[in-house]
Here is the input.
Amino acid sequence: MLGFMKVPPTTYVLQYKHGKIKREGAGLSFFYWAPTSTIVAVPLASADVPFVFPETTADFQSVTIQGQLTYRVADPKRLASLLDFTIDKQNTSYFEDHSRDRQKLPERLVHTLQSLTRAVAQRLSLKEMLVSSELIVTEAQAKLKESEAVSSMGLEILALSILDIKPTPEMSRALEAEAREALQGRADEAIYARRNAAVENERMIKESELNTEIAVEQKKRQIRETQLAAEIAAEQQKREIRETQMAAEISVEEQRLQLVSRRVENDRKDADVRAYALTEILKPLRDLDWKALMMLGGRGADPKAMIAMAFQEMAENAQKIGELNVSPDLLKSLIGTTGLGTAGK
Here is the structure.
């Protein structure tokens, strides 16, 4: 009996004839001789496997883990060698019997996942378990991809998600009560904290005002100190200027005194030099009579001086002169000689 097979691209078909593969591939369409052919169809599309299973935490509390696993067939020939994916459209009972074998694949994946999840759950307490879905997904998915059971069936794990982790109802109520009391305690702490914050803010405001007043007073004191320092510096500068002027005047006076002393010393030395020169000049004439010196004048001697010297000599020797008669004619001649008469005329 001649049959026709047509499958979508997401299905991998293998046609066996006399125990050998005659054709294989995805999305094939072909005629085949039904009495001697066996058709195996392995789905290649990704499949979602929902799961729900219980686990026990490290503190011996039961939780229920709910999620979904997504996988696809990467090696259909290997999977077909492990599970029966044979189809027979004419024999409905045969197809249904063999279709039960297809349900083993999701079950095996869920069992493998549950064993990997148990290893993580046994390390965590109940509270940690309820908030560690990301940790469970990360570790379980990594170990699931490396699992020998998955690779041996030619499968590829695409995604793993944990949708919910629930404790038992009694433990859930206990946790809710504990959380409620903790929240109530936090609310009371918040009220107390708010009151303390108000008191603290009031204290901070007063401290700020006090610090502001202190800062203002310190600023005023700094300004006064700055002004006082400026006045002291000005007075110091004035005193230094006066001292500088005084020192300059003292230096000028000292220089003037040195100049006067030098001038007096120079004048004294000059006078000493002139006196020494005059003494040396007059030294040969020191022992001569002045009268002789007058006589040495010769022709150039002044008659008036000569007459005066004569009369002075007579005056000096008046005690030796007994009587001196000066006749008018002599006096006249003397007067005329000296020019006194001309003066009288």
